[in-house]
Write a structure and sequence with these properties.
Length: about 475
C-alpha cells in the first residue's frame, strides 16, 4: 500500500462530527524530530473549545449509551477496518511526527492501533453479565457507562496509546474528548478522519488539540467530565489528580517508570543480551516500560557488559524512513537537553561512559534531536541517573551479588511500573518477580504483551489498571441489582 504524506498539515479540532478551527485562530508549529523542519500546525485550543467539545460529548451520550454492546462493538470493528486501510499512513505519520524508525512505527504503532479497536470490540461483544445467586435472591451485576471521558495522551506512542483508551471508553458506552500531545498530533487527526469516514454518530469521539495548560487543564477540571484517563509524566499526573479529585472524577493515571532489568549469572546470554538491548533502547528509550537500569550478577558482569556494549554500538542510528534503521531521533530539542543534562550528571557523579556521544549523520539531519545510545557504568545505585526517569537512550549498569541485593536495588526508586528478569531458573525468576514493587514484570522477555492482562504501575508510576477487563471496569460503573424472590 502506498503511503500518503502531505507536508505541513494544518490541523483542526474535531467536535460533534465537524473539523473546526480553534476559537483563538492560533496554531502552534509541529516539528519533525529528525530534521527540525515544520511538518504541521496544531490548533492552540483554549477553554471555550474544550467547553464546546464537552457539550458535544454530553449531547451524544443518551443515544450512544442506549446502544447494545454488540452494536457498539460493530462500530469498533468499523473503525478498526478503516484504520487498517490506512496502516501505511499511520506508520509514516507516526515516524515523521515522533522521529521513530518506520519499521517500528509499522510493527508497533500501526499494528497495535488497529488491534486495540479489534481487541476491545471482541471483548465487549462477548461481555457477559455476572450474577450471584442467594437462597432467596439473585444479584445481577451490570456495567453502565461512566459518562463523558477525557483521554489525555503523551508523545511516545501517540495513536497506540490513544486507541488503547478510545476503544474501551466508547465501547462501554461513554463519549469522549481526546487531548493528544501537542508534540505529536498527526495520527490523532488521522483517527478523527477514520471516525468521520465510518460515520460514527457525531459527538461520540471529539478531539481537542493544544498544550497542557491551554487545553488539557480545562478539560480535566471541566464539571461535565466524569472520568479522566491520563498517560504521561508523573509531575503532570500529580496536577491532573489534584484537579480531578475536586469533583471525584473517576481517574486512571499511567505515569513514568525507572524499570530494572535483572540479569542472573545462569541466564542464556545469547537471548538475554539482545532482549536487554531492545528493552533499553526501543523507541530511543522513550517507552515508559524501558529497562533503563541494568543489574548484572557479578559472575557474569564482565562478559555481559562486553557483549551488551558491542551490540548497542552495532545498532543502526539515522534516517527514520530507512527500513533498516533501529534508532531514530529524540522527540524535541528540550528533551534532548534533558537527556544531555543527565549524562553530565552521571559524569559528575563518577559514572563511566562505556559508549555514547553523537552519531555522524547526513546534513539533512543537522537540526534534528540526535544522540547515540549511551551506556553508563560505575554509578552508585542511589545516584540520580540510577533512580530518576531519563526517558531517553541512556542506561546505567550495576553489579549485584545475590537475589536479595538485586531486589533491593530494583526497589530503590520512587517508580514502580515494570521490569524484567533474565534467568534459566524459573522458580527463582518468579520468586524475585514477586518481591519487586511494580505493576508488571517479564521473565526472559520484555514488552511481550497480551492485551487481556492488567497494565499499570505502583508508587510514582500511577494509579489503577487498564488492559482487558480492567479497562472495561475502569470505563464503566458496575451496579448490583438484588432481586428478592417471594
Ligand atoms: P506530559 O506529562 O508532559 O504530557 C502528557 C499529556 O498531558 C500531553 O498531552 C500534555 O499536553 C498533557 N498535559 C500537560 N499538562 C497538563 C495539565 N496540567 N493538565 C492536563 N493535561 C496536561 O508527558 P509527555 O512528556 O508527553 O510523555 C512522557 C511521559 O509519559 C514519561 O514520563 C513516560 O514515562 C510517560 N508514559 C507513561 C506510560 C504508561 O503507560 N505508564 C506510557 C507512555 C508514557
Amino acid at each position: 500500500m502506498k503511503a500518503v504524506w502531505r507536508d505541513r498539515l494544518k490541523l483542526q479540532n474535531y467536535i460533534s462530527g465537524l473539523f473546526i478551527e480553534p476559537d483563538s485562530r492560533e496554531w502552534m508549529d509541529d516539528y519533525s524530530p529528525a530534521t527540525g523542519e515544520i511538518i504541521g500546525q496544531v490548533p492552540k485550543s483554549q477553554k471555550s473549545d474544550v467547553d464546546r467539545a464537552v457539550k458535544a460529548a454530553k449531547d451524544a451520550l443518551p443515544y450512544w449509551s442506549s446502544l447494545t454492546n454488540i452494536e457498539r462493538a460493530d462500530w469498533l470493528d468499523k473503525i478498526a477496518d478503516n484504520l487498517e486501510s490506512k496502516y501505511e499512513d499511520i506508520a509514516h505519520l507516526e515516524s515523521k511526527d515522533t522521529g521513530k524508525p518506520i519499521s517500528l512505527a509499522r510493527e508497533v504503532d500501526a499494528h497495535r492501533s488497529v488491534k486495540n479497536f479489534r481487541f476491545f470490540g471482541e471483548m465487549i461483544r462477548n461481555l457477559e453479565e455476572e450474577s450471584f445467586g442467594m437462597e432467596d435472591a439473585n444479584n445481577r451485576v451490570i456495567y453502565k457507562p461512566v459518562g463523558v471521558g477525557a483521554l489525555i495522551t503523551p508523545w511516545n506512542l501517540p495513536l497506540y496509546l490513544l486507541s488503547w483508551k478510545v476503544a474501551p471508553a466508547i465501547g462501554m458506552g461513554n463519549t469522549v474528548i481526546c487531548k493528544p500531545s501537542e508534540l505529536t498530533p498527526l495520527t490523532a487527526d488521522l483517527l478523527m478522519k477514520s471516525v468521520d469516514e465510518v460515520g460514527l454518530p457525531k459527538g461520540v469521539i471529539n478531539l481537542i488539540h493544544g498544550d497542557g495548560m491551554g487545553a488539557g487543564a480545562p478539560l480535566v477540571s471541566h464539571e461535565d467530565v466524569d472520568l479522566v484517563s491520563f498517560t504521561g509524566g508523573t509531575s503532570t499526573g500529580a496536577n491532573v489528580a489534584q484537579s480531578a479529585a475536586v469533583s471525584f472524577k473517576k481517574l486512571s493515571l499511567e505515569l513514568g517508570g525507572k524499570n530494572a532489568s535483572i540479569i542472573f549469572d545462569d541466564c542464556d546470554l545469547e537471548k538475554t543480551v539482545p532482549g536487554v538491548v531492545r528493552s533499553g533502547f526501543l523507541n530511543q528509550g522513550q517507552v515508559c516500560l524501558c529497562g533503563s537500569r541494568i543489574l548484572v550478577q557479578e559472575n557474569v558482569y564482565d562478559k555481559f557488559v562486553d557483549r551488551f556494549v558491542n551490540e548497542v554500538e552495532n545498532m543502526k542510528i539515522g534516517d527514520p524512513s530507512n527500513e533498516d534503521t533501529k534508532l531514530g531521533a529524540l522527540i524535541s530539542p528540550e528533551h534532548l537537553s534533558k537527556v544531555e543534562e543527565y549524562i553530565q550528571i552521571a559524569k559528575d557523579e563518577g559514572g563511566t561512559i562505556l559508549t555514547g556521544g553523537y552519531p555522524c549523520l547526513p546534513k539533512e539531519f543537522e537540526n534534528g534531536n540526535w544522540i547515540a545510545p549511551t551506556v553508563i557504568a560505575d554509578l552508585d545505585v542511589s545516584s540520580r541517573c540510577s533512580i530518576e526517569e531519563i526517558f531517553g537512550p541512556v542506561v546505567t549498569i550495576h553489579k549485584f551479588v545475590n537475589e536479595e541485593e538485586a531486589i533491593k536495588i530494583a526497589n530503590n526508586t520512587r517508580y514502580g511500573l515494570a521490569g524484567s528478569i533474565w534467568t534459566t531458573d524459573l522458580e527463582k525468576g518468579n520468586r524475585v518477580a514477586e518481591s519487586i514493587h511494580t505493576g508488571m514484570i517479564w521473565i526472559n522477555t520484555w514488552l511481550h504483551r497480551d492485551l487481556r492482562v492488567p497494565f499499570g504501575g505502583v508508587k510514582d508510576s500511577g494509579v489503577g489498571r487498564e488492559g482487558g477487563r480492567w479497562s472495561l471496569g475502569f470505563f464503566s460503573e458496575t451496579m448490583n441489582i438484588c432481586t428478592k424472590y417471594d
